[in-house]
Hints:
This protein has 263 residues and is an all-alpha fold. It has helices spanning 14-60, 65-74, 88-99, 103-119, 123-147, 169-188, 192-215, 221-248, 257-262. The chain is built from 9 helices and no strands. Helix 1 packs antiparallel against helix 8 (221-248) and helix 7 packs antiparallel against helix 8 (221-248).
Amino acid sequence: MTNAPIETPVPLPLGDRRQRLSAGLRLALAAARKELVLVIALFVAAAGIVAFLSLWDAVEDGHTARFDLGLILALRQAADPSQPIGPAWLKTAIIDFTALGSITVLAAVVLIVAGLFVAIRRWREALVLLVAPASGLVLVNLVKDRLARPRPPLILHVIPVTQASFPSGHAALSATVYLTLATLVAHFAERRRVRLYALSVGVILAVLVGASRIYLGVHWPTDVLAGWAMGAAWATLWWMLAWVLEARHGRLTRPTRLDKAAL
């Protein structure tokens, strides 16, 4: 009986070993970044929910009256509280900004971008973009009816409004729509500066719309703060749902070349 020769493994060339190590390190870092993003999203959603519930409780107990009235009057002319501070062109610009949070404008934005996602066969993104603001609108109306908070005094209104005051529907829905759009664009983007730009634009638009409601005297400041908190949490929760569904189906990848060209 003869003994079979023992095969000695041939070591990989140094260059191949470095390439494999580098590839493994890149995969590990990519996985860590995805997990970190999910943790940050969980924190944002939780912080938004806690902030919204805290504001709701404070408003119901009447603890925000002095803050709300003081801030809204600080934006009014001392001699005539019916007029906001600043030149006439500023009031016109603010009215234009507040329109970016109207149901009509937001619905048009959502339908146009969702149609683009359907055209490039990104079904999950289209569904999230449609369902997130629609469900957010239902939630806002439920809370408005439940709390039934009165609007600021009519003399402060620069534009006509209806419904209850808390939370600000413009602030909540603009945050939901623009932040959802921003996170979807950030998911597609290859470059970090593009992702940062998309997220910055989403935040700026949401802030402008909400702040405009206070300046125009149709919402108390805490209405807007609650709307921002609700919208940020709602957009984050829907993005997380899309992220989990995509990960489960093995599609947590960058878009195809067709997607890049279309976007």
